[in-house]
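hey so i finally got around to running the thing on that chain from the lab meeting. sorry it took forever, my laptop kept dying and i had to restart like 3 times. anyway pasting the input first so we r on the same page abt which one it is
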Amino acid sequence: MPKARLVFIIVFGALAGCATKFDRLQSYNGTDSGYLVASVGKTSDNPMNITRVYFRLKETNDHGYFEYAPKTFRTTSPKMFEAPNGESTLSVKRLPPGEYEIYDYSAGSDYGTLEVWFTKPAALAVPFTVRSSETTYLGQLLVGIRYKKVNLGNQAQGATLELSDQRHRDLAQPSTASLPSKLNFAIPPAASQLPLGVVVTQ
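ok and heres what got predicted. didnt touch it at all, straight out
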C-alpha cells in the first residue's frame, strides 16, 4: 500500500526575483499559443483552503499548475460553481503548443508561517495536448482528502482527485466564449488504468 505524503513547509519569506520552473508556463504569451481550460476546486469533504493540480510540458523543465484558494490571505480564487460533491472556479491558461501531462495534485492550508499539504498517494500521468490557436478542455478537477478510520475517528491519509466532464457549463462562460472554436477534449484514462486516489465521476 503506497504511503501518502504529508508535507510541512515553513515559510520564511518570498524569494523575490528567483526564477522557478513555473515561470514560463504561468505567463506565456507567444503568438503560437494554445489555450487550456479546466474548472478546478475541492470536494465537499476537503477542509483545506488551497487545492492545486500540477502539469508539465513533457521533455522540458516547464511546469504549471491550477490553483483554487478562495479563503486565504495570500491569494484569492472566486468560487464560481457549487454542487453537492464540491466547489470550483474556472481557469483559462495560455500555453505553448506541445504534449503535456498532469503529474500531481495536492490539498493544503496556509497558516502564514506554516503550510500543511496532503499530496497524491501514487504515481500519476494524465496526458493531454495543447495545439496552436486551439482550445483544450481538461474537465472539472476536484481535489479531496482520503481518510482512514482510526480509534478516535477519521485520519487524513492523502489527497484524491475527481475528474468529470462539465464542458457544457465551463465552455459557456464569458471567459471562454472568445477562445478559439477548434476544441480538443482530454479524455480521462479508462477506469482500469486509474492510479490510486483518482476517480472519474459524472
